[in-house]
Amino acid sequence: MTTPIIQPSISVKTLSESPNLKSIPSNYVNSDIYPFDFIASKPHDYSNSIPTVDFSLLTSIDPHQRSQAINNLNKACQEWGFFMVVNHGIQESLIKKVIDGTQGFFNLREEEKKEFEGKHVLDPIRYGTSFNTSKEKAFFWRDYLKVFVHPKFHSPSKPDRYSDIMWEYCEKVREVTKVLLGGLSQGLGLEECYLEKTLEMKSGFQIFIANYYPCCPQPELALGMPPHSDHGLLTLIIQNQVGGLQVQHQGKWIHVNALPNSLLVNTGDHLEVIQLIDYLNCYLIGKGSIPHLLIPLN
């Protein structure tokens, strides 16, 4: 049983906190696109098979270790299009500050968050809900914040110090991304700087996206995001420990159980265009009673 239709004029967070909410509004039911084959078949848990790339080996002065790490990186892109990065050098305390600061943003009063509602897809700061409410027949159980952080840095002015934390984190992520692109270039037999220069990374867009998935009374009917591939080169993701992210590999949807303090990396459409990887789908399922916070950076 679902509740009557509610237009997304309020955030999903506010909706989820409504008193006596026992079921989701009918226009948030996404059962028509939910991957029921995954639910029905309950395939083996392949999450432990998701490739892991040791970033410290990519920067090693030992040529054998670095060569092996480059091979592992390229194999992960070719076979999965998705991998985890460990020993990346971004302090765990900074990642926690980003997650806490982002939670603080979504905890702002509704009228404060609406100050950052964008009207156009190219607005440098956009706060909103669902995915594309102007076209969707069924809405997604998600609030979001999208911010352009490069080549010109933008940030919401609230909460306090969030802008400073976001800037520091985005700079660190750019450093990691450069090394990953260098490894991909060398794995293709090219110069280390090839992808960075050819794809004009210095002047390219870098986007900080925060997705908030509130508690849901009927997670089996709701979907946080539709199955999709990512634009751009690489999407680097951090999240709280609630989980919910899944990726498609060899026709099966697989739970992503992230290692502590790891970065999740999804290869984007621009890399597919230059034939580095196969097409990858990913989506996010509802997780019921615990809110999920996921922060991808393109």
UniProtKB/TrEMBL annotation:
Q: Which domain of life is it from?
A: Eukaryota
Q: Which Pfam families match?
A: 2OG-FeII_Oxy, DIOX_N
**UniProt GO MF annotations:** 2-oxoglutarate-dependent dioxygenase activity; L-ascorbic acid binding; metal ion binding
Q: Which UniProt keywords apply?
A: Iron, Metal-binding, Oxidoreductase, Vitamin C
This protein's record includes keyword ATP-binding = no
Q: Where is the Fe2OG dioxygenase domain?
A: 203-298
InterPro entries recorded for this chain?
Answer: DIOX_N, IPNS-like_FE2OG_OXY, IPNS-like_sf, Oxoglu/Fe-dep_dioxygenase_dom, Plant_2OG-oxidoreductases
Matching entries from PROSITE patterns are given as:
FE2OG_OXY
GO BP term, pick one: response to molecule of fungal origin
The entry sums up its family as follows: Belongs to the iron/ascorbate-dependent oxidoreductase family.
Q: Please report the name of this protein according to its UniProt entry.
A: Fe2OG dioxygenase domain-containing protein
